[in-house]
Amino acid sequence: MSSQIDHLLTETRRFAPSPEFAADAVAKADLYERAAADREGFWAEQSRELLHWEKPFTQVLDWSTPPFAKWFADGELNVAYNCLDRHVEAGNGDRVALLWEGEPGDSRTVTYAELTDEVKRLANVLTDLGVGAGDRVAIYLPMIPEAIASMLAVARIGAIHSVVFGGFSADSLRSRIDDAGAKLVITADGGYRKGKVSPLKPAVDQALSDRGDGAQLTVEHVLVVKRGENEVEWTEGRDLWWHDVVPQAPAEHTAQAFPSENPLYILYTSGTTGKPKGILHTSGGYLTQAAFTHRNVFDLRPESDVYWCTADIGWVTGHTYVAYGPLANGATQVLYEGTPEFPAPGRWWDIVEKYGVTILYTAPTAIRGFMKQGRVIPQQRDLSSLRVLGSVGEPINPEAWVWYRDVIGGGKTPIVDTWWQTETGAIMVSALPGVTEAKPGSAQVPLPGISIDVVDEKAEHVGNGNGGLLVITEPWPSMLRGIWGDPERYKETYWDKFAEQGYYFAGDGARLDEDGDIWLLGRVDDVMNVSGHRLSTAEIESALVAHEATAEAAVVGASDETTGQAVVAYCVLKESYLSSHENIEDLAQELRSWVASQIGAIARPREIYIVTELPKTRSGKIMRRLLRDVAEGREVGDTTTLADTMVMSTIQSKVGKK
Ligand code: 6R9
Question: ipTM for the complex?
Fold first, then answer.
């Protein structure tokens, strides 16, 4: 049986780097050897090479009180200086930092000199408002240049930001402000989404309102950017318009150096249950790994590349690969405010063509969405500038990988499938373009300086050809330093499972193939147990989307009297299939048999529901928890983190009818 359920591992297509790409690649194969010979020495060398240390460090890793790590502890640096001033001082002030595109079609170009100026002014404003080192600032903004400036200005004065995704509700915002004890909130009147202004300031007002519960919120001021031009209410004395205070503030501001372990930000993860976890990151180690991975994984040439990561700053990819990595490396990047479908499908490809994007970093869910629309839309644009493509957020099924390479990458670009987490801070597992022979569907190998293993419940290495749990066996520079205000939960969640070995437990299932390459199989809580056989949701989803009719699929394990758990699948069909097939009555049956033929009878879904959309978070993750509720006939749980809360009622009405 286990050989039958190895569907993903039967993927045999291989893509060797082209000799031209390899000859000139930023990353060289010897990085692995150097890191293996002296891991800490390797990171120290990278850090010195990539960053400016105001006070050089002499210590590398302090792991004397695990699991609390210190990297480069006696060194001092300023994160914002590293992302801004030093590029200007090096004569690159005229280089474009941000090529910003608003959803309605307006645009702005911001150079490194201009961004540095803006950040200095804002740093002065924040200081005047009483924000100092160690204070927390909540940022609740759309994808506009001010969002990046805000993160950097907070970092510049040694304060801590907590970015809250602009799509989160007032309640989510309130609980995050409350947990972090934020002193200031930076927001906008509103931002553009799907052609309309989506208001933000009203949610802040609601979040900060007195609820008569005796709760004392710590916020003293709200700084508001004018973007949506929507009407907003105003609390005199508390609220300030950005345009009234920032342009008037002096543009002189000397960046003070802070210790390497000075906290940089808190970012709340969308936990599956309970209170969200405030993941804490600090400065020197984080910025080192952000800059190293951004340069080597994306083959970055700061002088000539136009880089675009489509993530929102509200999640970790937007922190490390929109804000810190690219700016530390002096890159030029696209920042886009809106949705991929506005005003019509193809907007992203218009942007790639308009700005000549060379490196694109996005999520599998977006790629499958584009597959659903068909290849004609991207093929109508000139995408020939693209030379490296990246994927992040969930396992990318081989069909989507190959489509991404063929249709978006013109059949020539390397693809890097990057595995990492909010907690890891930066990419941990990925191919290196120009070095690694790529395997569609596999994230492949730990980066140089990163120690990963796949182990069983007893912490034993599983060996090639087997599955188990992904663990990180040695501390890494950008690792989380804890959960804000809850050191016990930090230990429990990540370190208790393999306490004896001192391994970090990532919560992901993975397999090693015959070459020892890593295939991520989804969260371990997404692994089903059907009649005593372990089945991965990712594996069955991959089989479903390999069928010509299916654009997207989500699989959950629903409790079942006889088999323990049963497979229940939700499928979204391709437009092209729907328009060329009149009768789809029998399709669910056909898909059940298809999965059985692809993987084995054990994997045959008990039910398949054809739906028009899947419930996703704003960062594009499928909320399987909700689909499990439906499959098990329970009342659907908390839907507040859904991008579109209507999706669940549509699905329920479908399932009700069977
Ligand atoms: C960066 C980010 C982390 C979880 C992680 C895993 C999944 C991310 C992946 C991937 C397979 C990849 N994940 N990248 N699974 N292949 N390339 O997404 O952070 O939002 O914290 O999510 O996402 O399950 O544990 P975060």
Answer: 1.00
pTM of the model: 0.87
Average pLDDT over residues 184-193: 97
Cα separation, 191 vs 617, in Å, equals 19
Stronger pLDDT, 542 or 336, i.e. the higher one? 336
- pLDDT value of position 9: 58
Q: Which residues in 595-612 are b (16+ Cβ under 10 Å) and which e?
A: bbebbbebbbbeebbbbe
CA of 422 to the centre of ligand 1 (A): 8
- Compute, in degrees rounded to 10, the torsion defined by CA atoms 550, 554, 555, 559: -130
Phi and psi dihedrals of 213, rounded to 5?
-100, 10
C-alpha 486/C-alpha 405 separation (Å) is: 43
Q: Whole-angstrom Cα distance, residue 592 to residue 25?
A: 45
Higher-pLDDT residue of 508 and 150 is 150
Q: Report residues whose beta carbon is within 6 angstroms of any ligand 1 atom.
A: 269, 315-317, 392-395, 417-422, 443, 506-508, 520, 523, 619
Displacement of CA 410 from its chain's centroid (Å): 25
Peptide bond into 66 cis (omega under 30): no
Question: Please, which pLDDT band fits residue 273 given cuts at 50, 70 and 90?
Answer: very low
C-beta of residue 454 within 8 angstroms of C-beta of residue 512: yes
The whole-angstrom separation of Cα 32 and Cα 446 is 10
Q: What is the pLDDT of residues 437-451, one digit of tens each?
A: 999 999 999 999 999
- Tell me the residue type at 530: V
Backbone angles phi, psi at 626, to 5 degrees: -70, -40
* pLDDT at residue 526, rounded to an integer: 67
- Distances in Å between the Cα of 169 and the Cα atoms of 37, 123, 201 are 49, 28, 11
Tell me the binding residues for Mg(2+): 545, 547
DSSP designation for 15:
B
Joined tokens for residue 86: 């030093």
- CA atoms in the 13 A half-sphere facing the CB of 255: 26
CB-CB neighbours of 475 under 10 Å: 21
- Other beta carbons within 10 angstroms of residue 457's beta carbon come to 9
